[in-house]
Fold this sequence. Notes:
The longest helix is centred in the middle third of the chain and has 71 residues. α15 packs parallel to α18 and α17 packs antiparallel against α18.
Amino acid sequence: MGVILKISGKKLLSFMLPFVFPFIALILQMLLWSAVKPFSWFFFYPAVFFSAWAGGLKGGIISTLISTALSWWFFFPTENSFVLENPVSIISIIIFVVMGILFGFSQERITLANKKSADALAAEHSAMTQFENEKRYRRTLDNMMEGCQIIDRDWKYIYINDAAAVHGKLKKEELLGHTMMEIYPGIENTEIFEVLRVCRDTGIARRIENEFIYPGGNRGWYDLSIQPVPEGIFILSLDITKRKKTEEELTEKIKAIGKHEKLLDSMIENIPDMIYVKDAGNLRFIKLNKAGEEVLGFSKEELLEKDVYDIFPRDEADFFTKTSKEVLDNRKTVDVPEETVLTKTAGERILHTRKIPIMDDEGNPMYLLGISADITNQIKLEGELKKYHHHLEDLVKEKTEEIQKSNYTLSIINEELSSFSYSVSHDLRSPLRGIDGWSLALEEDYGDKLDDQAKGFIKTIRSEVQRMAKLIDALLMLSRVSKTEIKSEKVDLSKLVKKIADDLVKQDENRKADFIIEPDLTVDGDYSLFLILIQNLIENAWKFTGKCDHARIEFGKTIRNEKEVFFVRDNGAGFDMAFVNNLFTPFYRLHHALDFPGTGIGLATVRRIINMHNGSIWAEAEPGKGAAFYFSL
């Protein structure tokens, strides 16, 4: 409320001051008129300036109008009248009004500029804070002993820490950027994949124990906590292979060894998880290993021959007794993912417990075997991860808004650049025609009076003018491509290549060149744009095979990453792949113009057309061994 009153008071003050300042100026000028006469605007100029400073454009205009009226009435001949004796006074009034409006406009622009600067600084500070938070969370995940991995909605690994890489028995570099199906063929048909898919699609977290079979046949058990995140799913994995093996071994060996308690005690004592055994009749502890003593804080002497009501609070004891009886009555193992235990020395701990019935020869329960893992730290970490997920959701939302704003700004810039290129290209044509025409006239009318060097200069001028004209044509083509509205239809690329190849051969029938064209290759797209695209790629291959004894130009289709990819391949000059990132940049040339003339616009136009069809284009080459251009849609 205080902030609202402060803002309202500031707005009220900025509204009132443009009315007050002119009257203050009037009072001062009346008091000092004898000293400032005949300067009718002496005190009114400062009044308008400060009004514009306080109220912006509106304040400046209001103060200007009031000041004009007051000065006109009180200080212009004839006083106390709006009648002007001298026409020059009209000019003075007009100048004052214009200056007042300029004051207001200037202050308004300054205020807006200051506000934009403050907003930009605030945005930069916010971005830095978000960046630091993201670094901190990533550092936490990297240093965790549990495996952490983030898989996007297309099943591609986008983050994995060292522990998760160990679980996967691969290096992080072998996992990142690849899908689960690529790394583990057939995983899409497994039960665990279905659990992951349901979590991704429904946004419901899951926690399961899963036996994973590696491609080589090895097996491993993992406790998986699966959380939905904006990117896809987050998996926290804990290797429980030893524990599962222990469970299996214990169950089998307890049946086999019967009364061999010494061997059983030795095994139980060295297990890292808490293991206890209760009598099935009274549910009193009869065995507890060293790990159990460490977790609960009780010694064997304090715990053995006692039941849970002697040790734990009643509500906890009721829960433990209920699950124990369920195991014994149903003669089935029960998994308790989380149970809270009040320990003697470490406060409340959270355990993941499996309770297993041990039967006699008649199938009646004799003992209750419990195996518990302390997952307190893991649960706390999951809580931190949930906070991180919320942070990520907010971050994604903010980044999405920023991207939308950036896309809008880029679209405006692209429109302006396109308009600029089109305008410049047209405006350059007229002087170029003049230069070419006058050069031709000079050559025809005065050719016999010029020496060879002068004639060479004229030839160079005309050649450069014609090259400039080609550049203009290329710019216009790039501009038209950018403005073209796509009309999708079935386009036979093979026929386009054949037509362009035939035209090139007719232009230079002495060249030895083979065109290998795969037939019936079609796409859905704009016919006119694909004609430009194919013409640029084929003519590019024709040009750079010009110095070959026998040129070979291929057009065909292949499969890469399960996608159809078209290609134009030649055995020409090729290029150094170190400069491939500049290949599609307008006006950038990888070869000297004297060796291979051109505009430097063709490949930029090709990429623009591919982008308009939501495709991608890339090139592969080797100097002296040719080049290949690939594009997919």
